[in-house]
Specification:
Length: 171
């Protein structure tokens, strides 16, 4: 009988160690999935904001709507639409990004005249884009992860560069 009890008490200690290891690995997988999901959601929000900003820019090319800065606040008409030219393109992007921009450092919005084939910036002001010319909106910054060291990420940040290009409807 004495041998049976001794064997059970040693087995309990082994079970606790095995359980701790399995729980640690499981939590790392769960945190990794959550962190990856947050990054995908952030990219989706940034892509949508760049698209909305580009749409706003192409519609308001010729009415002296400013490109603005990332800290601009939009104004709205009584019907809930953005009021032009009082609302800058950057204000639209910031508004659509919502709280997601708080996960970034160096949040910056750039509006530019774009090459229609490559989407790269070209010379000239975006407000001078001809009808059918391309206008681009770019969001840049650095995304901050929540739990990088626990998951073994080599870096706790990721450079962000999201761009949307559309054809101008004004001028």
């Amino acid at each position: 009988m004495a041998r049976l009890r001794s064997s059970l008490s040693r087995r309990r200690g082994t079970t606790v160690v095995e359980t701790a290891v399995v729980i640690l690995i499981t939590l790392m997988f769960i945190f990794g999935i959550v962190e990856y999901a947050r990054l995908l959601f952030f990219f989706h929000a940034a892509d949508n904001a760049a698209r909305e900003g580009a749409r706003y820019a192409v519609v308001h090319t010729g009415d002296s709507t400013p490109a603005g800065t990332a800290s601009d606040v939009p104004t709205f008409d009584t019907d809930g639409t953005f009021k032009a030219p009082n609302t800058s393109v950057s204000a639209v992007v910031s508004y659509v990004m919502g709280n997601q921009k708080n996960y970034m450092t160096g949040f910056n919005v750039t509006v530019f005249n774009a090459n229609p084939a490559t989407g790269q910036p070209t010379s000239g002001a975006w407000t001078d884009a001809p009808f059918g010319g391309s206008i681009g909106v770019q969001i840049t910054g650095t995304y901050r992860f929540i739990v990088p060291t626990l998951l073994g990420f080599s870096s706790s940040t990721k450079a962000i560069d999201v761009r949307s290009v559309m054809n101008s409807e004004a001028n």
